């Protein structure tokens, strides 16, 4: 594979991730309008979002198996196609129950992309941290554009038109990916997929001390990420009394910083080590979420958002850590398995924060996120201080 095609592959994988993320994030700034339309609580909609993210997480493991069996290109195209279809279905949801069902379909479609794309890019690039960081940056780019675009569309045409944004992003990228990316050879075309899902092998992998340690860190970070992606605009609009436009702008600023710092943190982890880079992100999270809770002015909110944007760039160093630990033959299925493990549990962030916000207010719910960042930093520091070798 020549250099130019490598860059094309990285760019289009990043665009594909951007499309699947845009479809999911278009929902977040529309939460107040959707809850009003369906007459449901924040906790109810938080449950729908948690189910979407949980389904997304559960799909990571079979995604890796599908990639090994059918090749990465096919799986990514299916992911983009399902994402576009699910966005259409969400836009025509006749009731809350159907809305929940279609968020699950969106979770399945979006969930098929990331594991196979990351495995594919790991095969192509020696600087794994940098490549993964650039790929992850597709999500923050979506976060920059999707909330503002969805909000502007919804103000004029209603939330259903805002949700439809996911279709108009995913459909053209599906066409572009099908046109420019060559067919990929599957790694295990003849092996029955059930053999890749044997319980004993899964338990063995997840119980390795270094994998369990990294999965725990990932769970804590994913919990915070899910809650932030689901409710940060609502935290500003309902909890702090800011206008929907300002709330969406701050949400987009969060993703700008998130996108800029992902490749930087990935490159930093290539140079100073995965855990050292992760310590930087956890420390930034403590400062950022703490600022959001105590802030009383727009400049303070902006400062808090800058820190949490850096904090949520944990994926580049920690996911690179997984790739360092997994052998070449187990990266597809193995990375999918650990992604499913930490993202399924981390998806509870949406419903937990939604419930806390209903019962005790937004300051309490976001204080929890600061506390989780403190716990993550403590685990990283303990591993170094006590030389646990995890």
How big is the Rg?
A: 20 Å
Helix content: over 70%
Distance between the termini: 35 Å
Instruction: Please give the number of β-strands.
Output: 0
Question: What features would you highlight for this structure?
Answer:
mainly alpha; 390 residues; 19 helices
Describe this structure in words.
This protein has 390 residues and is mainly alpha-helical. Helix content is 83%, strand content 0%. It contains 19 helices and no strands. The chain has helices at residues 3-25, 31-38, 42-70, 72-91, 96-111, 114-124, 128-136, 138-157, 159-163, 165-180, 199-206, 209-239, 244-272, 274-294, 298-311, 315-325, 331-346, 348-360, 362-385. The chain is globular and about 55 Å long.
Please summarize what this structure is.
Helix content is about 85%, strand content about 0%. By secondary structure, the protein is mainly alpha-helical. Helix 1 packs parallel to helix 8, helix 3 packs antiparallel against helix 4 and helix 3 packs parallel to helix 5.
Describe the secondary structure blueprint for this structure:
Layout: H1 3-25, H2 31-38, H3 42-70, H4 72-91, H5 96-111, H6 114-124, H7 128-136, H8 138-157, H9 159-163, H10 165-180, H11 199-206, H12 209-239, H13 244-272, H14 274-294, H15 298-311, H16 315-325, H17 331-346, H18 348-360, H19 362-385
């Amino acid at each position: 594979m020549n250099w130019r095609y490598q860059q094309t592959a990285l760019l289009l994988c990043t665009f594909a991730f951007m499309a699947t993320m845009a479809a999911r994030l278009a929902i977040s700034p529309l939460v107040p309008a959707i809850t009003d339309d369906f007459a449901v609580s924040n906790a109810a909609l938080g449950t729908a979002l948690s189910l979407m993210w949980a389904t997304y997480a559960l799909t990571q493991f079979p995604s890796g198996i599908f990639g090994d069996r059918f090749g990465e290109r096919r799986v990514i195209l299916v992911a983009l196609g399902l994402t576009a279809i699910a966005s259409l279905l969400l836009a025509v949801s006749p009731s809350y129950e159907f809305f929940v069902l279609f968020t699950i379909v969106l979770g399945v479609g979006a969930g098929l992309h990331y594991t196979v794309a990351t495995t594919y890019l790991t095969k192509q690039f020696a600087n794994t941290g940098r490549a993964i960081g650039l790929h992850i940056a597709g999500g923050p780019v979506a976060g920059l554009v999707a909330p503002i675009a969805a909000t502007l569309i919804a103000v004029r045409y209603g939330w259903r038109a805002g949700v439809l944004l996911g279709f108009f992003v995913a459909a053209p990228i599906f066409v572009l990916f099908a046109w420019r990316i060559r067919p990929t050879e599957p790694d295990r075309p003849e092996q029955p997929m059930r053999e890749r899902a044997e319980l004993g092998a899964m338990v063995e992998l997840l119980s390795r001390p270094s994998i369990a340690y990294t999965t725990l860190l990932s769970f804590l970070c994913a919990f915070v990420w899910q809650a932030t992606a689901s409710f940060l605009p609502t935290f500003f609009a309902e909890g702090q009394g800011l206008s929907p436009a300002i709330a969406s702008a701050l949400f987009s600023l969060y993703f700008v910083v998130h996108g800029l710092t992902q490749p930087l943190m990935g490159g930093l982890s290539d140079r100073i080590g995965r855990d050292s880079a992760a310590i930087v992100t956890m420390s930034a999270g403590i400062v950022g979420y703490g600022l959001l809770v105590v802030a009383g002015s727009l400049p303070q909110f902006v400062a808090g958002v800058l820190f949490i944007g850096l904090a949520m760039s944990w994926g580049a160093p920690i996911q690179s850590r997984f790739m360092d630990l997994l052998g070449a033959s187990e990266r597809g299925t193995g990375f999918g398995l650990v992604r499913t493990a930490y993202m399924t549990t981390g998806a509870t962030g949406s419903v937990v924060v939604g419930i806390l916000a209903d019962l005790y207010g937004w300051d309490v719910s976001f204080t929890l996120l600061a506390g989780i960042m403190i716990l993550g930093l403590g685990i990283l520091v303990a591993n170094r201080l006590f030389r646990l070798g995890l």
